[in-house]
Design brief:
Elements (H helix, E strand, L loop, with lengths): L1 H15 L8 E5 L4 H14 L3 E5 L2 H11 L7 E4 L2 H9 L9 H6 L12 E12 L24 E2 L6 H14 L1 H13 L9 H9 L5 E5 H8 L4 H8 L2 E3 L10 E8 L6 H11 L2 H4 L1 H6 L2 E2 L8 H6 L11 H15 L4
Parallel strand pairs: 1-2, 1-3, 5-6
Antiparallel strand pairs: 3-8, 4-6, 4-7, 4-8, 4-9
Bound molecules: fe (ii) ion.
C-alpha cells in the first residue's frame, strides 16, 4: 500500500514538474562520430542524466535554433568548428558559463573570450601529399601554396566549407585582408580541379594522382587508415602528412566545441556535460576513436598521431575566427574560389 502511494506521489510530482531529477539534456549536434555516443553514454552512466541528441547539418541546426528562439528544447549546441559557435554567439543564442573546470582545463586559444563556447577536441588543418611526386622539402607554409610551382597540383574542397573559411580567417588575422585575398586567388589558380567534395575526397584524389597536395584536417587521414574498406586503407597508406608554418606562427588549428543555450532551463546540468567532455576519461576518447587531438594538455595521443610527430600549433585565439570568418566568405567570392 505504502509502495503504491509513493508511486502515485512520484507520478503526480513528475507530471507537475516538481521532480526535475534526470530530465534529459537535449543536444543539437553537427558532429557525426560514434565517439560522441560513447561519451554521452558514459556521462549518463556517471550522472544519471539522459542525453538526447538531434543531429543535422550545420546550416540546418543553426537555422532551426534561430527559428525556435526561446522555445527551443535544445540545452546544448555542439559544432565541428569555432566559426559556427561564434555565429551562434553573434545571434545571441548562447549563455555565459562560469566554470573553473572549463577555464583551467581548456587552454585560452580554444575557448571563447566571453566564456560562451568551449573547445573539446582540437583539429589541425594540414597538407597531405603523395611522397612519390612531392619531396617534403618543397613544402613549408600555407603561404607557399600560392607559388606558381604548385600550378595544377593542389586539391581542396569548396569555400562554403567552414574549415576553409576558418583557415582563410587565420590568414586574415596573420596578414590582413588584401594579402589573404591574393593568397586565396593564387591557391585557387594552382588547383588541379575546381574545388569539390569532402576532405576525404581530396585524400582519395591525391592517392589517385589527380593532384599532389591536399589541404585537409588530419583526422580524415586517420579515419581513412581505419576504414572498413581495405581499398581505402591501402590508398591512405600511400599518403603523408606535413604540418605547415612550423618556423613561424604554427599550423592552423580549430576545435569542435560546445555551448549552453541561453534559453536552457538546465544550465547546471548542461555545464556538467561540457565539464565531462574535458575530463581525462572523455579526452582520451578523441585521439583513440576520431583521431582528433585532445584539447587538455597531458592527454596521451594515439599511436597514429605520435607517428605523425609533434608540431607547433598556431595559438591564435579562435574567437577571432568568427568575425574574420564572415569576411573570408567575401574574400573567397572575390578570389573565384567557388
Ligand atoms: Fe570534419
Amino acid at each position: 500500500m505504502q509502495l503504491k502511494q509513493t508511486f502515485y506521489l512520484t507520478f503526480i510530482c513528475l507530471c507537475a514538474g516538481i521532480l526535475p531529477a534526470n530530465e534529459p539534456l537535449v543536444v543539437y549536434s553537427h558532429r557525426h562520430y560514434a565517439a560522441d555516443e560513447e561519451l554521452f553514454a558514459s556521462f549518463t552512466e556517471s550522472t544519471g542524466i539522459p542525453v538526447h541528441v538531434l543531429k543535422a547539418g550545420a546550416n540546418e541546426l543553426m537555422e532551426r535554433l534561430k527559428a525556435e528562439g526561446e522555445r527551443t528544447r535544445a540545452d546544448i549546441l555542439i559544432t565541428a568548428d569555432a566559426g559556427r559557435l561564434d555565429e551562434a554567439k553573434a545571434a545571441g543564442l548562447l549563455a555565459q558559463i562560469h566554470s573553473e573546470i572549463l577555464k583551467t582545463r581548456i587552454p585560452e586559444p580554444y575557448r571563447d573570450v566571453d566564456s560562451q563556447w568551449f573547445g573539446f577536441p582540437r583539429r589541425a588543418r594540414v597538407l597531405v601529399y603523395a611522397p612519390d611526386r612531392v619531396n617534403p622539402e618543397e613544402l613549408s607554409t600555407y603561404e607557399d601554396l600560392a607559388h606558381p610551382k604548385w600550378r595544377g597540383r593542389l586539391l581542396c574542397r569548396s569555400s562554403n566549407n567552414i574549415y576553409n573559411q576558418s583557415l582563410l580567417a587565420s590568414m586574415i588575422a596573420a596578414h590582413g585582408e588584401g594579402p589573404a585575398l591574393n593568397w586565396a586567388r593564387d591557391v585557387r589558380r594552382n588547383m588541379a580541379r575546381p574545388p569539390q567534395g569532402s576532405d576525404r575526397d581530396q585524400l582519395r584524389a591525391v592517392a589517385a594522382g589527380l593532384g599532389d597536395v591536399a589541404i585537409v584536417n588530419t583526422y580524415y587521414l586517420g579515419l581513412l587508415l581505419h576504414s572498413p574498406d581495405p581499398r581505402e586503407r591501402a590508398l591512405a597508406k600511400t599518403l603523408r602528412i606535413f604540418f605547415p608554418n612550423q618556423q613561424d606562427r604554427g599550423t592552423h588549428m580549430n576545435i569542435s566545441g560546445g555551448a549552453v543555450l541561453k534559453s536552457s532551463s538546465q544550465k547546471d546540468n548542461a555545464t556538467r556535460l561540457l565539464e565531462f567532455l574535458v575530463s581525462d576519461q572523455a579526452q582520451e576518447v578523441f585521439p583513440a576513436v576520431t583521431y582528433e587531438y585532445p584539447v587538455v594538455e597531458g592527454i596521451e595521443w594515439s599511436d597514429l598521431q605520435k607517428s605523425w610527430g609533434s608540431f607547433h600549433a598556431d595559438d591564435l585565439n579562435l574567437s577571432q575566427l568568427g568575425e574574420d570568418g564572415r569576411k573570408s566568405v567575401q574574400l573567397f567570392n572575390l578570389a573565384d574560389w567557388e
